[in-house]
Amino acid sequence: xxxxxxxxxxxxxxxxxxxxxxxxxxxxxxxxxxxxxxxxxxxxxxxxxxxxxxxxxxxxxxxxxxxxxxxxxxxxxxxxxxxxxxxxxxxxxxxxxxxxxxxxxxxxxxxxxxxxxxxxxxxxxxxxxxxxxxxxxxxxxxxxxxxxxxxxxxxxxxxxxxxxxxxxxxxxxxxxxxxxxxxxxxxxxxxxxxxxxxxxxxxxxxxxxxxxxxxxxxxxxxxxxxxxxxxxxxxxxxxxxxxxxxxxxxxxxxxxxxxxxxxxxxxxxxxxxxxxxxxxxxxxxxxxxxxxxxxxxxxxxxxxxxxxxxxxxxxxxxxxxxxxxxxxxxxxxxxxxxxxxxxxxxxxxxxx
Length: 352
Known about the structure:
Layout: E1 11-16, H1 18-27, H2 32-39, E2 44-46, E3 56-58, E4 64-69, H3 71-90, E5 100-108, E6 111-119, E7 130-134, H4 145-148, E8 154-155, H5 157-162, H6 170-190, E9 197-204, H7 205-214, H8 220-223, E10 238-241, E11 250-253, E12 286-288, E13 297-304, H9 312-325, H10 336-350
Parallel strand pairs: 7-8
Antiparallel strand pairs: 1-5, 1-11, 2-3, 3-4, 4-6, 5-6, 7-9, 9-13, 10-11, 12-13
Helix pairs in contact: 6-10
């Protein structure tokens, strides 16, 4: 968002509930040093197909997403954080919910931006060849022509059906995934949350092998011409304010002047190349296709967009869509319990 050439002379950063998010990172197996190093190098903006207008950024090592939050999402994060933390503890982090790792407020020239850091659902070292956003609804649930023109479009429910797509993971893995999803959506329903999606990313190993065979190695002298972007040179002093239960604790950085840059960049651990074995940290949400499916695919699946409450605004939208499409139409805006049942039924049919 800012780099060493465009960093403002005065800004503030506030970290919300640092003890809670520290505990969440521990339970999700996130090393704090790696987390810090990932986010203190240049992050890059990436495509965000949602309607909220939120901006998405990807850490330099592709391990984490930084997403800006609109006011309703900020309110919802504060509302559900205590229950979310308790749920993660009780299920021993065996969940497909978004892995929220930190929440911050950045103030620059009196303009406030709220953001949350999440673990990347996809692998930082394996390319995704196809991507679906599935809600279990059929009304207006196909990617636009503009979206389909992108290099990696986010396809939707009707596209999945029309493509004849199947998530070939076998009965054992299907039962395991559906069991986790069942508990997750029951938790979301208890908080009156709906309109979430299952993001499905597909890595096609056969296609990857063909691309590698058709590619030519880059001469060593050309590789040396590209320099790796260094970390931010600016640093700030931190004043930590923590309450005993962690839910009210906040960490705030004061105004920043022009600090002395470090002598050298912080060391980073090089990412191990993929050699066929899935890594529990880098491919946390990965499931292989079954041997009998005739495919060599790796599926990455998790829930996203879980901060929408079934509010009066959503009730009004449901009434309007029902009038437009008819009472029997599979619209996306329905009661949380109805949404959960339909969602699970559709996802179950997507898997074999």
